[in-house]
Amino acid sequence: MTVWVIQGAIGLLAGILGGLLGVGGSVIIIPGLILYFSYTAQGYSGHQQHLVQAAAMICNVFIAAPAVLAHRRAGALMKPVVARLIPAALIGIVAGVTWSNASIFARQNGRYLAVLLAVFLGYVVLYNLIRLFSRTSLTERFDPDRPIAAWKVYLVGLPMGLTAGLLGIGGGAICVPAQQLLLRLPLRRAIANSAATILFTALAGAIYKNATLGAHHVSPAASLHLALLLVPTAVIGSYCGGRLTYRLDRRLLRIAFIVLMSVVAVQTFRKAYRPRGGPSADSPTPVNRREAVPPGISLGLPAVQQQAELLDAQQPAASGVDKPAGGQADRHLHAGRLGA
């Protein structure tokens, strides 16, 4: 019951902020799950990062959809901008997911993705601090009928998608300020355009990321199960957040966002930089399927046993020595090294 409450709360908060700020929600979901897992008996380890990112990308689709409806009703969407943002961001997100699946982020090294996310959140905090105290208006001469150069829109969409695919986030933290700086769009217009773009890029990214989870010894079923725990409250939060965008004071909203992101960035870096639980990155033994499934995620014992047996079958036996049964393999191998 506690698991449902905690993960439901994470989904609700992610939905509210995602709909409110056009950031997708993963900037809350991923750090929230990392912190939650770090306080369980198993602890957080880099092996779980790809699972967490895959589930968060699924959630981004459901967080963006209600927000887009709210922005559309408010007449904030700029179709010519969104029509160019989407293809550029799609190219970026495919490249980003491919990069996240590289060997440098494999197994326990998945924690480096969480470290990069913490650094990225630091950038988000810094940018918002600058905007909070800046007296310069980025959009004082905004004209909705003014033509916007296509290359500028592509320059916003491509890094948005690349960052989203690499870190498993929506990409709004790149897209919203970039639209203000390069396209000179008002904040609410930028948020609406970002949410609409995330709806498409998150769907493509989620499909690609989940389809490649097998490379990290994780079943897509685990990702879907985790997402199902987060989506219901995230959808509710997203709809409420999308409506609040046009009612809350922007300065007060920015201050609250800065405080929250500062805490999240610091805690994510602490937990990811020194993860508790899981084998070391240099371990010669592939990660066991059981260790890749966070607490509260149950795929059913038969499925877990089948994947564990498959991994065991793929591990080459030590020369001249039969592999001991079950969890005895690592201890025998370690003892052999000490005696050498």
Could you tell me the strand content as a percent range?
under 5%
Give the number of helices.
12
Number of domains: 2
Largest sheet: none
Shape: globular
H/E series:
HHHHHHHHHHHH
- What class, by secondary structure content? mainly alpha
The portion of residues assigned to helices is: 55-70%
DSSP, total strands = 0
Task: Indicate the low-confidence ranges by residue numbers.
Answer: 278-340
Distance between the termini: 49 Å
Radius of gyration: 21 Å
Mean pLDDT, as a whole number? 78
List its salient traits.
globular; 0% strand; mainly alpha; 2 domains; 340 residues
Quick summary:
It is built from twelve helices and no strands. By secondary structure, it is mainly alpha-helical. The chain folds into two domains: 272 residues, no CATH class; 40 residues, no CATH class.
